[in-house]
Amino acid sequence: RPSRRSVLAGGAFVLAGGLLPGRLGSAAATPLPKATRALDLSSGFMDFRLLGPDKPASRISVYDGTPFKTIRARRGEVLDITYRNGIDEGTTVHWHGIRIQNAFDGIPTLTQPLVQPGGTFRYLVPLDDPGTFFFHPHCDETGQTGKGLAGVLLVEDERDPAFDAEHVLCLKDWRLADDGSFLAMSEPAGASKAGTYGATRTVNGQPVVELEAPAHGDVRLRILNLDSTRVMDIGVDHGDAALIAVDGHALPPILLDNLPDGVWRMGPAQRIDLHIRMPAAGGTVRLADYRQSSLYTFATLTATSATTPAATPAAHAPRPFRPFALPRPQVPRADLKRATRLSFLLQQATDAAVKETALPPDDPLAKALIDSLCVGSTTYWAIGQQSWPTGTRRNLPPPLAEMTTGRSYRVSINNGSRYPHPVHLHGHVFEVINSSTGRLPHHFADTVLVQPDEIVEIAFVAAPGDWVFHCHILEHMEAGMMGYFRVT
Ligand code: C2O
Ligand code: CU
Questions:
Q1: Of 99, 163, 178, 428, which is the most buried if we count CB atoms within 10 A?
Q2: Most distant CA pair in the chain: distance in Å?
Q3: Residue whose CA is at the smallest distance from ligand 1 atom 1
Q4: pLDDT tens-digit profile of 242-267?
Q5: Are residues 171 and 306 in the same domain?
Q6: Ligand 1 in contact with 150 (CB < 6 A)?
Q7: pTM to 2 decimals?
Q8: What is the Å distance from ligand 2's center to 410 Cα?
């Protein structure tokens, strides 16, 4: 186990009176944002009953001693987060969806050294965009996030409309044996196909949550798919419900009834905000994943006669439902006419690529690579014919594309495989400009689900740094479906 000193020396980021990005690229020339709030964050283990009250507990991984630790902040804050690694393997923290400087993006090897057990790393996290975000490790994600390591980052905006109630719902399945221990997080049959599913389905760590809100009140639900694998079709058994944000970013509200099949299809890492108008006292609203043949109802909202102090009496009378619009996203807008066009095919890795990179998992080198570079030992997937160097002797692959800071890009993501892939780009908020199926409304996001045979086009203004671009089905990512854009 490396000492703290060796970790710091290896990190090369300690400087009197401040901190310096771990990687000294062109991005280092950008001035650091000024921190407004210091926070400590640590990871560790805890025993938690996932199988039921009378069943054995599971040893899960958490931030700050609580499942789905939630940080609430205001738009405009810059968090200065000292992270301490209390789990038993190297890790990092990635601030999913945050437009951050590259040095704080949390990618081992590419943007920072791995934080060893007992080690620390400081992250400067600027909160320019309001919305529902999350954070998670970027090493052995199937293992670390699969066992629970993920936190919620809520960025409030003074311009947000006033709701009578707000609830946060973190959906995640767990791969558990009857004695509460974890089953293997990844099986080849899953990793090479749709993924290895957990059978214990939960919301906020429970099988189902029972929530309350005032009758005829306006409720904001922030729903996060924090599962490693599962694509969900989120729907509500109630007409007065609208989709108001995707991945934290407002879109013109859409009644759920007006979406295809009345649901929003959401892959791992995707988030939605819903506005629900409650029925009369005693009435209920049920939320479910309608995708599976066996419907999973994860939350029931019951209308109570209680009022909230903020609400006016009129707010508790029946009235027509007009969904609230959240403040519009303020992100750099790509120039679609002048944008450089690129296209990437998502596909199974070719046999040649698999052969080139495969190391037997029991090879000590494979183990060392998994530990230090956070890569898997098998390659099944590729983006644009390239696979992240899983189990290979190479260090990093070349970038998928070289881009210029401040330029606009239109990237077509073409799914040539038989499985859906939620594709995530770090460090940017992109615009989803079209999908070949016509399924997706125009919206801003950091992750987009691309269905089999579908082509989705995204656009963004490139920010400086090396930004990974990967599938957020964690096994796909660890089995090669990851690359990066180099923006200079
Ligand atoms: Cu939440 Cu690289 O991802
Ligand atoms: Cu995938």
A1: 428
A2: 69
A3: 96
A4: 999 999 999 999 999 999 999 999 99
A5: yes
A6: no
A7: 0.91
A8: 21
